[in-house]
Amino acid sequence: MRTQKKKRLILLDIDDTLFRCDTFVAFITYYLSTHMYKIIILPWLLLLAALFKIGAVSNVTLKKNALLIFRGEDRASLAACAESLADLLFSKSLNRSVFEAVKSMAATGLYEIVVISASPSFYIEMIGGRIGASLTLATDIEFDDNGRLKASIAGANCKGEQKIVRLKREMNLEDYDLERSYAFSDSITDLPMFELTGRPVAVTPDRRLREHALKNNYIIIN
Length: 222
Known about the structure:
This protein is of the alpha/beta class. It has a single domain, classed as Rossmann fold (3-Layer(aba) Sandwich). 46% of the residues lie in helices and 18% in strands. The protein has 10 helices and 8 strands. The protein has helices at 14-18, 23-34, 42-53, 59-66, 75-93, 96-107, 121-130, 161-170, 191-196, 207-215; strands spanning 8-12, 111-120, 135-139, 141-143, 149-153, 182-185, 199-203, 219-221. Strand 2, helix 7 (121-130) and strand 3 (135-139) form a beta-alpha-beta unit. Helix 2 crosses helix 5, helix 3 (42-53) packs antiparallel against helix 4 and helix 5 (75-93) packs across helix 7.
């Protein structure tokens, strides 16, 4: 009896990987273009972003404050906004080299696409659906009993090692051929994801990731 081959995974980051931008920033910008009265919070977010750049505030603090923009929105309104944003992202910001590589591998039937992103799940899930991901993992956001967004994160920020924690919670990785699996990301913070697979791919890497990628024979997509 022929032994059934294990499937392989394509672990795919989104921001500055599948798309050539930070999609949460893009979502905020798009949302504010139709909700101008909320722009009053923008100077505060820009200050926090500057503090984040120098390490004075955490990514989680910045993200929670950014969520204040959407507080009170219901799921349907956010989904409609996400749909429009996705149209823009795929037409204007898609990294076609990454997209074509992922779709080509998935078309062989040997791979499952798993989207793993630190950005909010209320729009990342739609992106995962559009590219045929079998699983989409992102930072979950809390909603109240009436289905309206609260400016708080449900659980942990889906970043770094937490991506692997979430992945193991949802999948039995022993069922997959990890040595022949791929991980696509632009950031050294995704080192746990790179190290999980046998075929890490550094996408438009910065200096730190490029040095690590060259030293460890990663595939590099510029």
